[in-house]
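Re: weekly structure request thread

Next one in the queue (338 aa):
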Amino acid sequence: MAVKRKNMLWLQSGGCGGCTLSLIGAEGPDFSSSLESSGIDILLHPTLSEESGSEVIAKLKALMDGEFALDILCLEGAVMAGPNGTGRFHMMTGFDDAPMMQIIAELATLSDYVVAVGSCAAYGGVTAGGLNVTEAQGLAFDADMPGGLLGADFTSKNGLPVINISGCPIHPDWVLETLYQIAADEMTTDDLDQFNRPKALSNKLVHHGCSRNEFYEYKASGEQLGHLGCMMEHLGCKGTQASGDCNTRPWNGAGSCISGGYPCIACTEPGFEEPGHTFVETPKIAGIPTGIPTDMPKAWFVALASLSKAATPDRLRRNAVADHISVSPKSKSKGGRS
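Done, posted below.
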């Protein structure tokens, strides 16, 4: 039996719109073709829909009145609950003077699936940084604590919690693959991790496939931005601690933060926006980084790092603190050139 086509409503709240910008850059196929082929119809999207003003209000009210089904609700951007929990920092113009958070909460109860797109919608993200005077929060998490707008016990009509596709911004394929699974009615609670992220995305580390892994293995470290060496020891890279396949599934087929020369800031993880230090600094105690690779005992890391540094080839040691390959690998074949 064929799965019926699904209606998707996309709302934007407190954020920059960067996840949509990333999403419309989807390739092979593009965003629109992906939705069409997977059986998803866009009811409304702030950027992509033709409707505006009173037309948007009318469609939202029709949804709330049950005139047609809401299968998938996607929220991009954090929920703005301020001031003092009233939500009046973000109002829906023309919608009976209602705060946006009230509309989001009501629509969430009507939808079969609720999806938080990006770290702002998932946990509060950058929008919740600093003093958070806007009281920004995620749909079902506030940083790493369950709660948010909908509460820790929220489930959609299909019995699932909010599905969090974290990232700042998201990779377009992360959203599309999640929507494919939803469109096929194949998403279950067993497919989600402790932060309700799809395991298909979160069971990998950014470190996997990193172009600097040879430098990492020998702890040949760069000392400033622009150096080729591993950025974990001195430049704050959290690729060994962050969920994501950024280096095995690069943006636009070619790029990632690390391949572009900037350390991973763990933007898929809750609370990444408040690391307690600058993003290009590695906090240390007695010269040892406090943020060690996921699942690795600190004593083992220190021992292995010491051995690795002692065995670092001169080629890697010199290239690590250069902005280009200054020493090439030597061929071991007979008569090979260095």
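The CA atoms of residues 17 and 283 lie 31 Å apart. The chain has a mean pLDDT of 93.
Next request, please.
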